[in-house]
Sequence to fold (234 residues):
Amino acid sequence: MLCPESQARNYHFILQQMSQLHADFFDNDAQLVARALLGKVLRHRYQGRWLAARIIETEAYYAGERASHSSLGYTSARRAMFMPAGTIYMYHARGHPSLNVSTQGEGDAVLIKSAIPYEDSLTSPDMLRYMNMAFPDERPPRRLCNGQTLLCRALHLSVDDWNARQFDASHFYIDDVRLEVSRIIQTTRLGIAAQRDAHLLYRFIDYDYASCCTKNPLTSRTLQEGRDFHILKI
DNA sequence: CCAAAGATGCGCT
DNA sequence: GCGCATCTTTGGG
Fold:
């Protein structure tokens, strides 16, 4: 007979095994993976505590276009983009870590661009406090993960620990807890120079959380639906 | 040395 | 809300 604490641990482990995303999830076209990742939950164990965030914004990158790091050529730092689908690719963007996952197609990947903290029975009660420890100032929950480097900092994910590695049910993985995503905004990626395929509509946002993403197309005066962005119904 | 798939505060509308 | 200047750290030529 297991003690209650062991039972809880077992239950936790079984839930992880049931719902975590495996390599076959990522072994698809980068845009499909980018869309499917919306509503999925990043879970990272940091100092014995489980931290989690719901993905609300992603970008797809292909070796065959000019915005991707892989299109710049193979280097050791970029090797994870060329590794099998489901390999974690992390790099430093302006001094802070950024999280990507390789997909089907050598050199193709998805950038996880923003998320919001997600609390449930698996996460630590003091999760928000631990996320906030990454920042000098006190931040409201919706400002903890709304940026590709901010979410890595809040979840305490480092390049040294996770670049070119695989997800792992005991430390860091992506979970499918069946959250509903009914509409997706498809629009242009951010921070891409005009001559590097900036026009491609490879950025995806969970419509219901557009107000929490890095840059909301719905409230822009200059962007027009049908030209600069589309709303996809699932 | 400097470019790079950022984040922020400030001033303006 | 938007554009712009300025701060940031690392890997690669």
Observations:
- Residues 20-182 of chain A form a domain with the 3-methyladenine DNA Glycosylase; Chain A fold (CATH 3.10.300.10).
- Chain A has a mean pLDDT of 91.
- Residues 75-77, 91-96, 159, 216, 219-222 of chain A lie near DNA strand C (CB under 10 Å from a C1').
